[in-house]
Write a structure and sequence with these properties.
Blueprint lengths: L1 E4 L6 E8 L3 H9 L6 E2 L7 E2 L4 E6 H25 L3 E2 L2 H17 L5 H6 L1 H11 L11 E4 L12 H8 L3 E7 L2 E8 L2 E8 L6 E2 L9 E2 L4 E2 L2 H21 L2 H12 L9 H7 L57 E7 L4 E11 L5 E9 L12 H27 L7
Helix pairs in contact: 2-3, 3-5, 6-7
């Protein structure tokens, strides 16, 4: 241990090498992988056995935060990974989420000191909350719950599926007026929207710590978060593919070939089985464009959609470049299908195809999380369906308007 100022209590103490993301997450990743090893995007040519650590906390403060980590592991992480059930919105979850986001901000390499100064008040409030010196947070955390895709449904791209279901990620994100602390691991995405938060765009994600449950049927309609979340796995793919040597790539292939665990037995296998498709190129599948005649069965009262190839996954649509979009931004959210008794992913959006044409889409895909016996919708699920219906109507109205006003020579 090295001596230094504990960032939480402010005392000069021996500092522990503290994790930002708890160590049990990395243990789970190794146990549920094929090879038993991990790799970091910063050093893809090196195997790793643990996550990012840095001298941050004294022993007393480390133990203070560890108490809630153990609670989260037993009461949230393990049950949700196993069954995808709603998670308890208890004070322990609120404390755990704040501790994650505070640690992310405290260990972040801030390049813009004015930006860092702008969030100082929020971070100080979080620090005091973690020491039981205040109960007034000001900025509350959110959690967005992801899931494994259904292997019988159209496939995800590899990087989408790996990122959504298993990746760890820590970032402070300035994105078009939204500044957020962001920590992701496994099927959990924790967000602290510090600046530019618009609460009406975040449905079912707020952690309040007052009891009750957070249902996986959620909706985030903030296009700034959507744009960041869409592009993150693409950035990870570019980072790994540009920096990983051929020797290490061959080493990974050999480790898969010599695997000791039975094929299909690990969580990583489930991800790869659902991600065998190539990245989806939307420009090749447009049913029609506004600069050509519409098909005879296409009317202004119908959805303006794209043709879907057999290996298409709805999440892959998130890979579309977001810059230059017109009309409603892309919306993705989880809902519930009473017919199939499963949660669903709903995606709506509209965009130019880069060639002066306009296309739109609406799609839904099933998650592999059967609820059990059919049951009435909860209040949260009913609200999610209402949001989806409202967004679909907005999408329909915008298409009608576009068909009425755009001419053949229109260039977007």
């Amino acid at each position: 241990m090295s001596q230094g100022i504990c960032r939480l209590c402010g005392r000069l103490e021996d500092l522990r090498n503290s994790h930002v993301i708890p160590s049990f997450v990395f243990k789970w990743m190794k146990e549920t992988s094929v090879t038993g090893f991990m790799r970091s995007g910063k050093e893809p040519n090196l195997r790793s056995q643990d996550g990012f650590k840095t001298p941050l906390l004294c022993e007393s403060c480390e133990q203070r935060l560890s108490l809630r980590e153990r609670w989260f592991k037993l009461h949230v992480f393990e049950p949700y990974i196993q069954s995808g059930t709603p998670i308890p919105d208890e004070e322990e979850l609120l404390f755990f989420a704040i501790s994650l986001l505070w640690r992310a901000a405290e260990t972040w390499d801030w390049q813009d000191q004015e930006e860092r100064a702008s969030v100082e008040g929020v971070l100080e409030n979080w620090r005091r909350y973690l020491l039981d010196e205040t109960s007034l947070l000001g900025v509350y955390p959110h959690v967005f719950l992801t899931d494994l895709p259904n292997p019988e449904e159209p496939k995800h791209s590899m990087w989408e599926a790996l990122y959504v279901a298993r990746a760890t990620d820590i970032a402070i994100v300035p994105w078009d007026g939204l500044l957020m602390a962001y920590v992701k691991f496994a099927r959990f995405v924790f967000i602290g929207p510090i600046i530019g938060y618009e609460p009406e765009l975040w449905k079912g994600t707020l952690i309040q710590g007052t009891g009750g449950q957070i249902n996986p049927a959620q909706g985030i309609r903030d296009p700034r978060f959507g744009s960041f979340f869409v592009n993150r796995p693409i950035q990870a793919q570019k980072l790994f593919q540009s920096d990983m040597s051929e020797r290490q790539a061959r080493r990974i292939d050999k480790a898969y070939d010599n695997r000791k665990k039975p094929p299909g037995s690990t969580d990583l296998d489930k991800v790869t089985q659902a991600s065998e498709a190539q990245p989806f190129d939307p420009t090749g599948y447009a049913l029609s464009t506004l600069s050509s005649s519409l098909p005879s069965d296409f009317g202004v009262k119908e959805d303006f959609t794209i043709a879907v190839p057999p290996d298409y996954c709805p999440v892959a649509m998130r890979q579309i470049e977001m810059d230059g979009w017109h009309g409603p931004q892309m919306v993705f959210q989880t809902g519930f299908s009473p017919e199939k008794n499963q949660r669903v992913l709903l995606v709506y959006g509209i965009a130019p195809d880069g060639k002066g044409h306009l296309f739109g889409f609406s799609f839904q895909g099933l998650f592999d999380s059967p609820i059990g016996e059919p049951q009435p919708l909860t209040a949260g699920e009913a609200e999610s369906q209402a949001i989806a219906t409202e967004q679909h109507q907005l999408f329909q109205e915008w298409i009608d308007c576009a068909l009425t006003h755009l001419s053949d020579d229109c260039s977007l």
